[in-house]
Amino acid sequence: MMSRFLRTSLAVGVPLxxxxxxxxxxxxxxxxxxxxxxxxxxxxxNLAGYETKYFDECPEGLAIGNDELWWKALSPQDRDxxxxxxxxxxxxxxxxxxxxxxxxxxxxVCWNPTITKDPPLRVIKGKIxxxxxxxxTEDGKATANTCAHEKFTSPDGSTKVDNxxxxxxxxxxxxxxxxxxxGHANRERRDSSQGIILVDVSxxxxxxxxxxxxxxxxxxxxxxQKDSGGGILPWASYRPSDTPHYGAKxxxxxxxxxxxxxxxxxxxxxxxxxxTGDMIYKGLRLDLDLTKxxxxxxxxxxxxxxxxxxxxxxxxxxxxxxxxxxQWSCPAIWVASQELADGYPDPKTGKxxxxxxxxxxxxxPAFVVPREARTAQAQxx
Length: 381
Fold this sequence. Notes:
By secondary structure, the protein is an alpha+beta fold. The protein has one domain. Strand 7 and strand 8 form a beta hairpin. The longest helix is centred in the middle third of the chain and has 13 residues. The protein is globular, with a radius of gyration of 28 Å. The two termini are 46 Å apart. 38% of the residues are buried.
């Protein structure tokens, strides 16, 4: 049945098109595509190095370990006495803890690294390294935020690289790829769910190329979700920790499937080799390659920045019980790291207070539950 409005309008000669414009619903403007978020849990990270089959990058050989230095300083009589005629292995007590007490008055040389002088640390002499050009120079000259240092060249020859942590640790047996120091720490993180880095890439319009995204680094309060074989399941949900000093935000972009985050000062959670704490960085940056997934669904990338020296040394001295397994000398590492530190000079002394470091990372896709959503849920909104 025709409505009274329609009959009256037609009777007075109102065009039908005009009537339709009044009575039919108007089309709404097209909604902008919703922004996406990409989430990841980083479980494994290893020093990004360049290792050759015959250790060519270490022409002086691998570093001398603490036990060897202790042993060589003993008289034959003391060797017999302190090792039960050689039957006590370097990894066994009381030999292992005793070997660290090499100070003049039996001080612990990892907690007092300047109290004795060891042979210089054998460091990387090779020219090839992996990482980023973090200081922006081609020759490693001093800048406002860096000390003069030698740079590496990337394996493809395209980039000058800052990675002094590799120069310091790369000739130490335990830090070589596949050996104990980092392999054990990675297993501990996977087993315990402690020290897991949570990365949230938000404001994403296009997962292949996007000129502006936001990258946030968190810790998580949740346990890693695993399959029956202990593998980390992709696409599990994780809540960021409410700890205030986590949550550093960086500007970023996606270029040809690579998530690239600009430098930002950040704290990251640390757990490894039975040590809990934080990793403190200046100028932390990320390049995460999303173009190729591993069979377990994870992605690979590089995470790099300037590691605060005091923060890093606190970790080194706390893992002195692994000096035998890892084969290093704390006094030798202390001297080398003081000489090779390349980031953020102290304004009074001019000595650099941070060490450039690049790490290979394994990132498993995940859903990051925003802090705001958790707050709203807790408040019943």
